[in-house]
Amino acid sequence: MKHHEPAVWLETIWRRRRPAAWTAAGLFALIAAGTFAYPPIYESSARVLVSPNRAHYIVSPALQSASDPNAPVVNDREIGEQDLNSEMELITQRRLIEQALADMAGREPAPSLLGRALNALAGLPVELSAMLHGAPRPTALQRRARAAERRLSASVIRKSDLLEVSFRSRHPQWSREFLSALLKRYFELHAQIVHDARSERFFEQQILRRRQALHAAEDHLRAVREQTGILSLADQSEAIVYQLSGFQAEYRKNHSRLDGVNRQIAALEEGLKQSPMRLLKEVKSAPNPAYEALKPKVLALQLNRDDVLRRYRPSSKLAREVTQQTANAQSVLEQEDYPKVIERLSDLSPIWLGLASNLAQARVTAAALAQSQRTLAAEIQTYQAELQRLTNDGVEVERAVREVEAGNEAYLSYLRKGEQARAELQLNESRIMNVVLAMPPTEPIEPRFPRADLNLAAGLVLALFAGLAAAWWEERRDPTIYSAAAIAESAPAPVVAVLRACAKPGAAGA
After folding, report:
1. Which segments of 195-288 does DSSP mark as H helices, in order?
2. In this structure, is residue 124 part of a structural domain?
3. What residues contact residue 341 under an 8 Å CB cut-off, 6+ apart?
């Protein structure tokens, strides 16, 4: 039908009311029968709170670290997704299911005859495979645990630290009892995982060993300090470096002063060389008798030479001898002073005296500075050797200190762990864990499936649509024309009039 006017639809439904009614009634009856005939499935649920605020004592208050006195005593870390997933895997593992079923042995409801037949038919492929390949066959408990595992579910409630655990079965009381037994086994397993009683003994043994190792390290450190005389390496090194720096500064200062004094001595010595020691005050003189006696002889020789040179050649033997005698006499005469000094009067130069006095003082100062320089150099070498010895011995002291610190840290670590182990043992014995049963397993009142009200409402809607579909199908299969709309669909000409036939009494159909 191409036309979708409500009148046409209503007319068609009314004309095909019988097949539509039978179809709708049959489908609704089938759904209702299935709903009431299907065995109900009940679901029991419980909620487990995974709490981070368990009284989980890391150390006792007396064992708090001095370096961090504000360290928390209680483990208050946030619960993450991994923690929740781990709890889900623990609570749904098959081992716990088998243990819970074993605890509930004899109280599990017996399956119906149809249920046993279906279970046997479902397990037939596994049995055949085990027979063909020689594989181990599961026990009855394992088969029951596998079936119960399919009906067990666990999920995290959104935006919370709650786990919701559900178990479905055909018996409401059995659902609650099995879920209670499963949670009991879960809490026992959780207590075993959190703490093992053997860990306390292990930590006690380790504490004893670490205490002995710590005492040995302390004795070794004491012996090293007595041997080297180092009590505080940092303080003693600082004191030696401070004194060494002072001596080195004094040495440089003294060296500078000594260089200045040496330059002053050199300048004074040069001044003494250039300055006369005495100054001439008065000179008394008289004629020299030797000079007076030699002078006439020298004049006579000179005259004789002149006479010989006039008579003889200068290269002759006589001329040379006379010339030589004259030269010798002239040389002797020149060696004799004409005025003979009888007495010279002089005084010491004040400039020279001042330079000599300053030079003596400078030499004394230089000697003192040189001695001080040698003393400072010896002191510097002594402190450098002491610093070198302190450095070499400090390595051994620091090694011994590190051994003591490492031993102390290990000892305190095991001491804390031992305290934690004892605290966990007491907490587990008191049933105080970080998982708490927030809501115990509930005994279901209404079945989880099937839901009669929901199934009947859905069946009613489906039956209505099925009846409409049946009416439409019946209308499409019937070639008879019942309305002007049908004529308009099949004939291109417009409809002028419609003649209706009068139905005979008792006749069926229009």
Report:
1. 197-228, 233-274
2. yes
3. 283, 284, 285
Cβ neighbours for 254, distance < 8 A, ≥ 6 positions apart: 369, 372, 373, 376
Q: How far is CA 53 from CA 49, 68, 84, 248, 510, in A?
A: 11, 21, 15, 64, 82
Candidate ranges 201-205, 208-212, 282-286, 483-487; pick with highest mean pLDDT: 208-212
CB of 53 within 8 A of CB of 74? yes
Distance CA 246, CA 380 (A): 9
pTM equals: 0.49
Please tell me whether residues 32 and 45 are part of one structural domain.
no
Residue partners of 299: CB distance under 8 A and separation at least 6? none
Distance, CA of 353 to CA of 348 (rounded, Å): 7
CA distances from 334 to 15, 292, 330 (A): 184, 12, 6
| Residue 263 domain flag | no
Task: For residue 177, give the amino acid letter.
Answer: E
What is the predicted pLDDT for the residue at 481? 65
Domain that holds residue 331: 278-348
Residue 372 lies in a domain: no
Q: How far apart are CA 310 and CA 233, in angstroms?
A: 110
The answer on 146 and 293 residing in a single domain is no
Can you tell me whether residue 347 is helix, strand or coil?
strand
Distance CA 52, CA 444 (A): 31
Query: Which tens digits make up the pLDDT trace of 124-178?
Result: 676 677 677 767 777 888 888 988 998 999 999 988 889 999 999 988 899 999 9
Same domain, 55 and 28: no
- Of 19, 21, 33, nearest in space to 464 by CA: 21
My answer on whether 99 and 221 are in the same domain is yes
Task: Write b or e for each residue in 144-179: b if 16 or more Cβ atoms lie within 10 A of its Cβ, otherwise e.
Answer: bbebbeebbebebeeeebbbbbbbbbbbbebbbbbb
If residue 162 lies in a helix (H) or strand (E), which one and from where to where?
A: strand 162-169
Of the three residues 418, 441, 464, the one that is the final residue of a domain is 441
CA atoms of 152 and 289, how far apart (whole Å)? 158
